[in-house]
Amino acid sequence: MVVRALESGHVPELILCDEASLPSLTAHADRLATTTVVVADEATRRSATGLAVALSVVGLFPKPATLELDHLLANNDRVVALAQVDNPTNVGAIVRSAAAFGFTGLILDGESSDPFARRALRVAMGTTFDLSIARVTSAAMMFAALRTRNFETYAMTPSPAAVALDDVRPGSRVALMLGSERSGLTDEWMQPATHRVRIPMAAGVDSLNVAAAAAVACYGLTRRNG
Ligand SMILES: C[S@@+](CC[C@H](N)C(=O)[O-])C[C@H]1O[C@@H](n2cnc3c(N)ncnc32)[C@H](O)[C@@H]1O
Q1: Residue 83's domain is classified under what CATH number?
Q2: 208 Cα to the center of ligand 1, angstroms
Q3: CB of 48 closer than 6 A to ligand 1?
C-alpha cells in the first residue's frame, strides 16, 4: 500500500521498514527526498501500527485534501456518489470497484465513511490514492453542480419500478449514486436523478449489499459505454 501511495505521487513524512524492503523504496527516491526513512525491528513496526502483524513497510502520509466539487466534476467524467454509506469496509470495496471499472471520482455526503480510514484503505488495496474525492453537505447543490457539468445521474435502487440496468445506455458523463444499507437513497437523492436503476434479482431477495451493487453497476455502466 505504501508503494501504491508513492506511485500515485503522495509524499510520506516517515517510513519504517525492514532491511529487505529498502531496495523496493529506492525506485521512489525522488519522492523520498524529504522523508525520514528508518530501518526498524519487528516490534517497533508492530507497535507503530497497533496491528498483530509487523508490516514490512509502514508509511506516515499527510491525509490528502478533498477537492471542491466543481473541480472534481470538471476533471472526471465518471463518478460514484455515496449517501449514508457509513461502513468503512463497504466504502473501501466501492472504491476498489470504482477504480477497477474506470470511475475516477468519488463524492461523499457528510454521513459516509472516510475512504482514508485504515479499514477502508486496506479493503480498497490502495486504489483510493488514484481517486479524486469531494465531500458535499447538500444533495440539492450536488445535483445542481452535476447538471451544470452535463452529468446524467443514475440512482441505484432495488425498487421494481426502476429501469433494469441491462436497459440503460449511459451518457458520456455518468454519476452513479448509492445509498444506505438500512433505508437506501433518500428522496433528496432519488427524486432529482435523471435515471432510477435496478439490478434485477431473484424473487424474494430484498437487496444487494451496497458494495456488491456498486461492483455490478460500475461494471454494467462501463461495459455499455465502451
Ligand atoms: C442494502 S441496499 C438498501 C436497501 C433498501 N431497503 C432500499 O430499498 O434501497 C443499499 C444500497 O445498495 C444499492 N442496491 C442494493 N441492491 C440493489 C439492486 N438490486 N439494484 C440497484 N441498487 C441496489 C442501492 O443504492 C441501495 O441504496
Answers
A1: 3.40.1280.10
A2: 6
A3: no
